[in-house]
Specification:
Elements: H1 2-32, H2 62-85, H3 88-91
């Protein structure tokens, strides 16, 4: 029984010693540079420096401001279009799609209009 225990203890000591030596060899090889077994150099893990946080100066309202600018621009174009529709070209029925009211000709001199499709 003692023989088995001593052999087991000897095996554990040898395996622990060889494991430590392997680890030390790998670390030593890594410091030397790339080898044929490990051609890529290993990058050392360097912790990032703690970034200084800038003090927040409150929320920004850029998107809200841009929204109100778009709404105001749309309202301006709508007002402009309404003002344009008040001109006689669009509000007076005698113009009927013409920039200027068509001439009133006598019936025997009437011409076919390409814009509105009526003789006048």
């Amino acid at each position: 029984m003692r023989v088995i225990a001593s052999i087991l203890l000897l095996v554990l000591i040898v395996s622990a010693a060889s494991a430590q030596s392997r680890r030390q060899k790998k670390e030593a090889d890594a410091e030397l540079g790339p080898t044929s077994l490990d051609p890529l150099p290993k990058e050392r893990h360097v912790p990032k420096e703690a970034r200084k946080r800038t003090e927040s100066r409150g929320p920004t309202y850029n998107s809200e401001r841009e929204y109100y600018e778009r709404v105001e621009a749309f309202a301006k174009t709508r007002r402009k279009n309404e003002k344009m529709l008040m001109t006689p070209q669009y509000s007076d029925p005698t113009y009927f799609g013409h920039k200027r009211p068509p001439k009133k000709r006598p019936p025997h001199k009437m011409k076919f209009c390409k814009e509105c499709g009526i003789r006048h």
